Amino acid sequence: MTEDSERQELLVVTGMSGAGRSTVGNALEDLGWYVVDNLPPALLLPMVELGARGDLSRFAAVVDVRSRAFSSDLEEALRILGEAGHHPRVVYVHASDEVLVRRYESSRREHPLQGSGRILDGIAEERALLTGIAGDADLWVDTSDLNVHQLRATLENAFARHGQTPPLTATVLSFGFKYGLPLDADLVVDARFLPNPHWIPELRPHTGQDADVRDYVLSQDDAEEFLERYVAVLRLLIPGYRREGKRYLTLAVGCTGGKHRSVAIAEEFARRLGAEGIAAAARHRDLGRE
Hints:
Blueprint: H1 3-7, E1 9-15, H2 21-30, E2 34-36, H3 44-53, E3 58-62, H4 70-83, E4 89-94, H5 97-107, H6 119-129, H7 131-136, E5 139-142, H8 148-159, E6 169-176, E7 187-190, H9 211-218, H10 223-243, E8 248-255, H11 261-275, E9 279-284
């Protein structure tokens, strides 16, 4: 292991075709990373060592599916990098089948693995190939409901800091159960036990980011105890996550529509996690939906 490899930060960006790997690469480039797109797994080690000999302190490689041997090729490349003293982090970019099909149809492109079948056939085969990599990834980024600005904010929260990477970065994500569970959630919290501001006419047009709704939600009899107890659970979990090398945590907080209760609770969780020394940011998936 060399001093250069110790100083260098290394990301491998992979995931589903059409999910936005190249967009992630572009955002990382804007954040100061040196990014190589469409890099074959076998070239990872030579490129990383070339960068380590220069002044590339932050190197990211975007790797996509080129063959049915992709998964084993990438796993082998990551193993070789580890044996050479490098410590790559894997970012897995994904989206729902519905979103991927819509993106392919709008671009009039074929999925790289669909062959003579349907787009969904290619997507299903790719998901199967990526199962191992997805399970070992350090960070999942679900682009199903993200615009470019939200995607950039997600990456900034994880990677924009200079110097030593914090031991754990948390995203607290509010969502509406009626729109489905977030695919990238590590932990899911249900805030539907609290009274719903939707049924109070003067609060209905507002959101959990507004003071009147926030104060209403947080003033409920069970809200404070719920927050205190769940933060205590996180205090128990976080040291274990750190020991296991987990650097990114997504805590999803749900209510019916993702507008009132979950938003207020997510903002308060982010504030309390920040007070615990965790780099935490709140994001609201379904805010603005009807």
